[in-house]
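To whoever picks this up:

The parser on our side crashed when reading a file containing two proteins. I've narrowed it down to the boundary between the first structure block and the second sequence. Both blocks are reproduced below exactly, byte for byte. First block:
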Amino acid sequence: MRLFSLQRITLALTVIWAFASVSSAQETTPFRLSGDVAVPVRYQVDLTVVPDQDTFTGTSDIVINFKKATPILWLNANRLQVKQASLSVGSRTVATRVVSLPKDYLRFEFNQLVGPGEAKLHVSYQGEISRKDMQGIFQVKDGDQWYIYSQFENIGARQAYPCFDEPGYKVPWQLTLHVKKDQAALSNTPVISETEDNNGMKTVKFAETKPLPSYLVAIAVGNFDFVDAGSAGQKNTRIRIVTPHGRGPEARYAAETTPTVVNLLEKYFGIPYPYEKLDEVAIPLAGYAMEHPGLVTYGASIIINKPENETLPTKRLWVSVASHELAHQWFGDLVTTAWWNDIWLNEGFASWMANKITNEYHPEWHMNISELNAYQDAMANDALVSARKVRQPIESNDDIANAFDGITYNKGSALLNMFESYMGPEHFRTGVQGYLKMYSWKNATSAEFLAAVAGDDQGFVSAFSSFLDQPGVPLVTVQIDCKGSASRLVLSQQRFLPLGSSGSAPELWKVPVCVRYPSGSNEERKCMVLDHQSGQFELEKAKTCPAWVEANADADGYRVVYQGNLLNNLLSNNAGPLTRAEKVSLIDDIQALTGNGMLPLATALALAPTLARDPERQVVSKTMKITTGLQDNLVEPSLLPRYREYLSDLYAARAAKLGWTAKPDDSDDDRLLRPVLADVMADQAEDAASIAEAKRLALAWLNDHQAVGPDMVDTVLVTAAQHGDRNLFDQMRAAAKREKNEQIQGTLLFAMGSFRDANIAAIAMPISLTDEFDSRQSLSILFGLSQSSKTRDLDYDFLKQNWDALVAKLPTDSGAFLPFVAAGFCDEQHRQDAKSFFDGRSTKFTGGPRNLAQVLEGIDLCVAYKKSQQPSVTEFLQKYGTARP
């Protein structure tokens, strides 16, 4: 396992140095706090927080174990104004001087050496309650009332209290909140006392927590509704859904389903829910969810919904996200990663567990296919030279921010899925349970997790680590050798790299390959580890040379390229039935192989019609990864009519059958496929009837929200906008101002960024600089306009001209993500311009350097793909016009 060096400040200081003026050497801050000098034992934090005020006051008492004598203590702090600090060693008080640094650190200088042994640091301070950020302690408004919440992951706790703000420092916390007497205060643990003061305030004291790192502590204050969700688990833990005032009725589905999710998780882990209570809190405008033990928070649009707006997608989203966050109560909270380089242990595992729990709860939803699509999205990111390792060294705040990405969540989940399949579910589960029991209330590392799951199988550790400790995804080449009496599978591996990549492919994985193949009238399955560049494996039970081989039988974390006739045979009627997941995986591989030049895009387009007629919704949708989005860069203008004919031939009949309006006998798949097909026909195939229907329904919905089913609202509004005029834009803008539903307002704002008329775009873009809407939502207008070639340049120019104003108005560090407005370009001129403009601007924000690198690399790859595959598409469409299937 690869380790990394830490920047540490030397702490071999003398007493004379402690009394001296601050030197330049002392100004060097440590990236990580030195655990060999001092560690926390427990915290007592006392905060006064009032919604609609921009500051809070607090005191923090930290019992610290000084492991060696030192005149200096470093703690993390950001945006805190320290009023007073003192250190108590027994009955003795040590004079303490505080040096505040610009960001992230406080330095406490003592007038004598302190330690070894325990001491208590007392700090009183003032902090900020943000109205634009959703980090630290922040406030948002719902209706006419303000609410206060906290979000400390990853390094936001230092905005609430001075602390050891690293996941490895896991100790008990005791919180006390002073709030208005008519408001509720919540934290991780139950209230143990509540007393009214004489100034319209009250003091709420919470029980001490079990050991927690700083980022898992949480608070919420406001005039809440509390919805009783019953109890769950072996300990009959009480569950409540907490919403802004008046929105309790919208929590019906969350209250109904949470107990089942908790019970299923307990069943898998074999450990009762670890905490005293479970409150699930809705936060307006939040686009995330967070696993604070006992006080799990969710974006309001995830957890609450008016019954009339509930759809199958909203239900699927809720159960999946709740399963993810509640899985963290064991995996991430009960056992916590030791450092951010192993954050995949938290997030990858929770994503994998969410898929498992959701599939057990609702097998008819086939959520494993949604998870597979997420895995494949991670593969696309993993193909970049700028891709992270799953277990990436963390040496800066940029690295911490970048660690919360698709590689961590989706690739981490895919690896767990792949190795569970190879090892066997029960064996794997036994290892997970042993790991949790061994490290309960502690921190753990990847090595400790792998060792616990592997048992005596050290080959498992080596194989899994080969995916953790290097970037990229393996491409496995498959051939059949039937010389002589035996049938052999001939495999080789290399890193998948797309056309135009500057990377090489020297990586070697230990790939658990599972295959299916025919044996007479039966099918056989075999798993093997490909741990060299190439290898041969005998198919012992093949009675004749197999006509087909499915070389990714579990649709796991590698790509496959078939040699000879194997691909055609696999897709023919002679092959055994491919599972839904295998078909989706195969289609993604076909598309990917056009991306690295192994397969002409014309070949993929020719294969798509058969796949598009598949009865499975997920297969039909997946074909669109091959067939759609070609018009901007790959289809010559003169061939656009033929391209649209091609799309109509693939999807029009099915789209017409489903229509734009729900039917009483709709299946779940009908409801999920209808908006997808409607969008393709209107936006991609430019079908006049579909466009007209979208406009008609959008106007009807603007007058009466009941005119369009809730599962079609997004598609109707965005599609109508793409072909809409100024009158429609004005109506949407007025509707967005009136709209109280956060999710619907967000849809309207994105639709306002989907108009393709340059004059309308010129009106839409400046909205992001005003207070007409919350900037956290109106930013979607800019990203919407960047999706179309007709408005992308206007949008990009607006961004450049208004850079300073935008980054000042948007939440802190949003500038790191603004380069994605340029991600749709596919030419060298824009690439160079983006590099010149953003370098030194977006790269100043946390996480910005890697984001810009990925945008620029994406443009490079698009240029290479266009050069390679445009002639293939041209030839295909020219022939298609005269010889349509």
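<<boundary where parser fails>>
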Amino acid sequence: MLGAIVSLLLVVAAAYAVTQVGGVITLLFIAAVLFLAYRRLSLLAFTTTFTVLLAAYTVLGAGGAPAGIWKGFLWLLLAALWLLNVRPLRKQLITRPFMKTYLKLLPTMSQTEKEALDAGTVWWDGELFTGAPRWSKLLSAKAPKLSAAEAAFLDGPCEELCRMLDDWSITHERADLPAAVWEFLKTRGFFAMIISKKYGGLEFSAYAHSCVLAKISSRSATTSSTVAVPNSLGPAELLNHYGTEEQKSYYLPRLARGEEVPCFALTGPRAGSDASSIPDTGVVCRGTWQGREIIGLKLNFSKRYITLAPVATVIGLAFRMFDPEKLLGGKTDIGITCALIPRNTPGVTIGRRHFPLNVPFQNGPIQGRDVFVPLDFIIGGSKMAGSGWRMLVEQLSVGRCISLPSNATGAAKAAVWATGAYARIRSQFNTPVGRFEGVEAVIARMAGLTYIMDAARSVTAGAIDGGEKPSVPSAMLKYHVTEMGRQVANDAMDVHGGKGICLGPRNYLGRGYQIVPVAITVEGANLLTRNLIIFGQGAVRCHPFVLREMAAARNPDRAAGVEEFDRALFAHIGFSISNAVRSFIMALTHARFTRAPVEGPTARYYQHIVRFSASFAFAVDVAMLALGGYLKKKESLSARLGDVLSCMYLASMVLKHHENQGRLEEDLPIVEWACRSLLYHAQEQLHGFLRNFGNRLLALAMRALIFPRGRVYSAPPDRLGHKLAGLVINPTEARERLSQYIYWTLEPTNPLGLLQEALLLAVQLEPLEKRIRVEGVKTGKVTALDPPGRIQQALAAGIVSETEAAALREYDRKVMELIHVDDFDPRELGALAAATPESAARSSAHVA
């Protein structure tokens, strides 16, 4: 593959060669060599083919002095290529000296960094680093599907739970879930979705787990947060994978039955996002436990932001373990360790609560002072001491793909469902507000972003069910899905206006809007995730050669290390130059000749993703070569490259999701908006990367190969937004698919169901309203300003029948009930005021 390097030299010399050495033949020769580089031939195959081409070119090409110089240069280049095929010579002259320099430049890697890099698996994210992603790998993956038991759970217990929830009562009056809801969650398996049936759990798929969270979050953010934690990174997950059989047999059935409520204590005042630097300690020592002296751990810790801590009965605790007296016979600094600590253990202080932005899911601090526990409390037993960080990063790659992305997606689906209906039933200037172009643009963005979120959530969950543990995609989903959720929440507020900002029993947006920063902050702050993790981890973890080169350079077996480093290095060089050629050709042709795995309207987006994959892979290699370890500190550059990777990944998820749903034609405007938006953002982030790249000459060279025609991608056009908004403000099947698995059941206390009912009535009664305007208002027969008055005058004038008038009155009543906002006696809003009978009655009857 190294022979592809010739292509770069030929591109540089092409202008001179074509003008000075005989145009057509030279151009054909260069095109042939570029084609070979594009196709990524091996070094030997390329060299052999190049020899034949050069021989033919020498015979058929132009004569004269300029041509002779040009051909001489090419023959020297060919000689160098043949020498590079002699591996013993190549290793001695190039590989060994370069490896020595490479080792000096290679930054040191801590054990925690190594474990983070080794965690999880490389999936579609790895393909996007190749410059030529294999679509068969993605498209052949099974579409995620609920089993009969999982579907029954969503339609049964999940529906029943949502019916029990009164969010205003939970958030304003109780600051907690009712006792009956807690009992229902514990006894109906909501805390046991990831526990195997062997221990009494539900053993749901990742996709079912995700759908349950999405549905609950469409009803109550407090409840979805409560359900998410026991099923994410915590005691059950860690016990499943690392616990001793004794620990599993004791704890997992109790967790599955809800007899134990778990929390996991990781974050503390001095260690937030940098969890590997936790100062909490566990010192191996002798102590008394249940009346006898044993070797155990004396724990001292201070944790905060711990969800479920105030009500937890068992605490999963991460701490730094030391053995200063070497009672275990090994090293003194054992490392990060995880243990299970019962709530009632002496020295544990627990029960106080944080109050995260008016959304009162149970969250609070935990402290421990001289807490003594047996070594058996270490998850996995004493043999797993020091393995805590590995345990955490391995399981985080799964949990971060599910919990927050699912909650954010469910909330976004509910916001789109509600906003589409509200924009249809709410009229201004005799027109539904959803038909104003400005509102259409906002609703289109909401729908497009929600489709992206749902595609990423469902397809990635399907990959987990297929055996993947996608660590880099988990970071992409955590960041981008929660950020898109923030945008959707803001847009929903903008469309609803005063209806959205007045809290009360009738407000179905306010608490979801308030909790958005919580999702942005927890499980790794989004600023950190974007600037350091997505590309920082992906560049090493997903790149086809970097990890191989690093491992080979550090191999203590020198001969084996040089052998492997040689193979990786020269494959990497050829890979980089080939991607430069692929980037240039696909950018020049707008990827029109790139093979797509499907036919039809979406084929072009597959082609564009391949084009960006080549440009991205090329830019990454140049950046890593030019900046080395310093690239890690150039967070803005890393973040932009991470955005490009994320946009390609998310666009791929959109296309796969569209395939999974059967390539439905009605959904094409949403798919097109999503792909156009993502690809446009990828282009702009690549542009920003080049503008801010420190080396101007390298940036200019990269720009010539990445954007030879300039930036040709544009954001989704207005006409597309108009189509998209139309799918959401009308009762279409696309609207239902977009909001699948939310709680839209028609019930007196469910605003999402009532909004849908009003939307259906709006479409049904629109001809009657139009008749009143045309035959009544315009002719002067109807002069009333309010709808009830107009209906009455239209009835008197014979414009509508009694039945039609009754239907219009009932519709207007339903609309006004949905549009109204709450008001309160000042005494009801006091922080210390007890819930009054009046407020309780208001809460229970607010949408009756």
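After patching the parser it read the second block fine. The longest helix spans residues 388-425. The CA atoms of residues 545 and 732 lie 48 Å apart.
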